[in-house]
Structure formats: C-alpha cells, structure tokens
Amino acid sequence: MKKSNKNLFWVSFADLMTSLFFVVLVLYVVTYVMLRKEQKELEAKNENYFEISKELEQKNEEYIALADTLENEKEKLRVELEKLNQVLKLEQQFKPLQEDEDFKYLKKCKKYVSKKLSSIEIFEPNEDKIKYQYRSATLEVGRKLKGFLRDLNTLNENFSYLVIIEGNMANTWDQKRNKDDRYGYRKSYDRALAVYNLWNSNNIDLRVYNAEILICGSGFNGLCRDENEENNKRFSIQIIPKIEYAATKQKKP
Predict the structure, then answer these.
(1) Collapsing DSSP states into helix, strand and coil, what is residue 34?
(2) What would the pLDDT profile of 99-115 be if each residue is shown by its tens digit?
(3) pTM of the entire structure?
C-alpha cells in the first residue's frame, strides 16, 4: 500500500513538472513575441525619428539660407534708404542756387543760366572770344558756382559731382538753320570751352571740390530751349550729384 502511494506521488510530481515546463515555455514564447513586437515598434520609431531629424536639419539649413537672403535684402534696403536720404538732403542743399537772384533755374532739365547774360551775345560775332564788357559778369557766375560747390563739399565731403558747362546757340528768326547743323555744335562747344578757360585762368577751379567738369555744346538743338530764340544766346550749367559714389564711400566694411 505504501509502495503504491509512493509511485503515485512521483507520477503526480512528473505531471506537475511537465505542466510547469509547458507554462514556462508558453510564457517564454509570449514574452519573446511581445519583445520582438516592441523591438520592431522601437526600430520603426527610430527610423521615423531619423527621418524627422533629417527633415528638421534640412529645414534648419533652409531657414539659415532664408535668413542670409533676408540679411542681404536688408542691407540693400539700407543702402537704398541711405541713397534716398542723400537725395532728399541734396534737394534742400540745392535750394540756395535755385533761388539765387543771379540765376534762372530751368526746372524741367535742372539747368542754371545767368540772368545777366541771358539773351545777350557775349561773344564776338562768329568767334568764341568773350567780349570784354561781359568778362566780369561771366567771372561772377564762376565764382558763385565755386562757392556753391565749396558749401556742398563741406556738407557732403564724400560726394562727387559732375558739372556740365553747355554752350547754346540762337537760331535765326525763321529757323532756317538745321537743328543738327555741325557749325552750331562746334561753335557752341568752343564757346563753352571759352567760359571754362576764362574761369580756369582766373583761379576758378571747380575741380578742387570733388567735381568733374564736362564741356559740351548743344548748338541749335537741346532741351529747355527758350521760345524766344534770342534768349538762347547763352551758356547753361548743370550740376549732377554722383549718389552711387557717395553711398559706396560711406558703406561700412
């Protein structure tokens, strides 16, 4: 009887161990499957994070490039604003010459002509020599221009200017001369040169104030001609500021 009970114990124990083995095996398989699933999910998340990180890095590079572009545009706008401020400032600085009682300002083409010398034949007939009685008035025009350029240079030491001395000729009353007559161009140029030479020989050097001089002749042609042909017996002055030059000189490194 005792032997039978002993054999029954070991059979039951073996069955228990077998059941426990299958339980452990099932738990192992379930755990393995769950861990593999989680591993794949983590790998997928890592891939997503990598793609997101790569996309963020690309976006960051785009933002940096955009920031550089905006900075360049900002600098361009700063330069343009500086030029605009210079133009507005210059317009005010040109007022004294425009309102000078000795000059007539031709607003349409921004030229100046001497009121005293307008409509007067200041040159010897068919020559480029200035008559003696008009030399002092011509010199006075040059001195005023020199003083004006001196004042401009004091206010804007980095500015440069182009000063145009233009000779003009009066046509006949019946307009019989061709507007593009070569004689008109040559003679008006020679007369503008005579004005320049008179100033230069009397210490009226406009170049000392950062100005370049251009001598030309429009003959019987050109803009802003007076309807009364007699009034076209004159020379005109134009002062052109070189704003680009000033902006470049003032630009910070």
Answers:
(1) helix
(2) 778 888 888 888 888 88
(3) 0.62
